[in-house]
């Protein structure tokens, strides 16, 4: 949205349009230029009789924090506005994402000195930040503080604590957090499972979490599907790869060509081309086009095995996509 349009048409001013303009400006322009634009926008708001307060101030603050310009974000606090909880949450989030957990704690202390009560978002962000810093005791302390303050601890908070356990290699602790979620009726989501699975090194540990996921009839997102398929095929556990494939087919999950590619390469390398061909056919029947690499691998093996009927069928399947490309 052009800057001149916003300044000349106060009627279209809104937090959303303000966010677009200031974020773009903060990304490419120096601090003073962005502050000057902010002051011009404040004048436009005032001329239009629109309220201009802490919400707009937070838009400016977020614009610098998104760009990780933390020093300049601190200077924004001296703009004559009284920061609220959202203001501090923005700064804490930016510090944690930048790996500056001690700075985040300093901002948290400043928040307390202003008698602003932290929200669930505040403490959840700090737990994530403690995880990035590898400080499990502090993460647990912050997590416990949620209950002490009477906050309604949700799945995001538990996932943050679980992530911290997994980052420091504490599988037992991570699984304990998962168990506590189940006991309290908090449904595990893809973040929960991926958080644990992505940090595991041993196949038996992956199988343990995988078994729990399948036992709960949970339908994972594609990143988790891809992660598991790579683990199974890289460890020559083609039985688990096929079992998992059939599970996602049964659940109606979109059959991704890259997942198929990993599985087919594993199956063909293990002398199980027929099963690879079956999976390939399922993807085509779902209306998705497999990777050319997957097709060439199967084509070469079918030629070598003199499986001319299947070869003809394979080429016919792929020709459908080629016909669509030429239309």
From TrEMBL:
The keyword Cell membrane does not apply. Pfam families: PPR, PPR_2. PPR repeats lie at residues 84-118, 119-153, 154-188. It comes from the Eukaryota. Keywords: Repeat. Belongs to the PPR family. P subfamily. This is Pentatricopeptide repeat-containing protein At3g61360-like. It comes from Dioscorea cayennensis subsp. rotundata (White Guinea yam).
């Amino acid at each position: 949205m052009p800057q001149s349009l916003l300044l000349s048409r106060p009627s279209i001013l809104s937090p959303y349009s303000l966010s677009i303009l200031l974020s773009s400006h903060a990304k490419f322009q120096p601090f003073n230029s962005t502050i000057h634009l902010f002051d011009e926008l404040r004048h436009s708001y005032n001329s239009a009789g629109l309220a201009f307060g802490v919400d707009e101030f937070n838009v400016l603050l977020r614009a610098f924090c998104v760009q990780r310009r933390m020093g300049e974000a601190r200077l924004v606090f001296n703009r004559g506005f009284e920061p609220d909880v959202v203001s501090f949450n923005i700064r804490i989030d930016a510090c944690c994402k930048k790996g500056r957990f001690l700075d985040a704690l300093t901002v948290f202390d400043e928040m307390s000195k202003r008698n602003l009560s932290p929200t669930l978002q505040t403490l959840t962000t700090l737990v994530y930040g403690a995880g990035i810093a590898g400080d499990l005791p502090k993460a647990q302390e912050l997590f416990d503080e949620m209950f002490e303050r009477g906050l309604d601890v949700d799945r995001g908070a538990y996932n943050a604590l679980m992530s911290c356990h997994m980052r420091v290699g504490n599988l037992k602790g991570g699984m304990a957090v998962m168990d506590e979620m189940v006991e309290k009726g908090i449904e595990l989501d893809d973040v929960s499972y991926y958080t644990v699975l992505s940090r595991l090194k041993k196949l038996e540990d992956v199988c343990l979490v995988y078994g729990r996921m399948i036992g709960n009839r949970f339908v994972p997102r594609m990143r988790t599907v891809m992660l598991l398929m790579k683990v199974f095929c890289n460890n020559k556990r083609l039985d688990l790869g096929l079992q998992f494939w059939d599970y996602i087919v049964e659940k109606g999950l979109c059959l991704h060509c890259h997942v198929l590619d990993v599985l087919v390469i594993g199956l063909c390398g293990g002398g199980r081309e027929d099963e690879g061909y079956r999976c390939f056919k399922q993807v085509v029947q779902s209306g998705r086009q497999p990777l050319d690499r997957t097709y060439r691998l199967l084509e070469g093996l079918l030629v070598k095995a003199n499986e001319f009927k299947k070869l003809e069928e394979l080429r016919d399947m792929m020709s459908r996509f080629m016909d669509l490309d030429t239309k």
